[in-house]
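**Protein fold record**
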Amino acid sequence: MDRNADAPWSKFDPEVYVDLNYRTPLEVDLLIVRSLRDYFSRCFAGSVPDSVRGVDVGAGANLYPALSMLPWCEKILLLEYARPNVAYLERQVSPGGLDPAWDAFWQVLREAPAYRDVDPRGRLGEIVRVERGNLFDLDGQRRWDLGTMFFVADSMSECPEEFRRGVRCFMNALDEGAPFAVAFMKESVGYHVGEHHYPAYRVNEDRAREALAPFARELEIHDLHHSVRPGHEGMLLALGRRNTEVAVP
């Protein structure tokens, strides 16, 4: 069984990953972006708190979760472990650094009123910080008001306990009531980026709900019946808010 520590994270190629997954927008990613846009717009429809701090855990080479949080946040942290991905993210949030590949996703976001007056390139540079860090080190640090975690807890290990621990660490990093969005590859048996293989845990809707439910209220899990490569059966998108329960150790 391949665990997180066994994967070749230092050899992860973000440019290859973007070319494979985002250079030409996939229908399922545009569907996810619409869901994020609409869900966060509903969550903040009444009023936006003065200081919303957002986090994207395991950001990798995917900017659309961060883009989806831009109108609502005073600060956003992109937390990432793989050094090549950290370097990629730092380039993206530097002045003028955002790859035009992300424009198509922003066009979908700006269909909602809250996004229309936001300059994504300027805003990324103003409020987004990139930090190298391990998801497992977040346990118990509940400090963010809005959070996303896309294809992380399920895409780093074959071990069920590491999957559950990853979900727990993310959820325990959110303040009470914080809206969140989490995505998993459904029933993934692993994936390749370039020449390197990376492990995955076979998540289904029941396993996703079991992992998230102790920490969530208003939990909704959407089974997106889209496959983007061999070796998985679709995607799951979970939306909800952090509940008031005591954090599970």
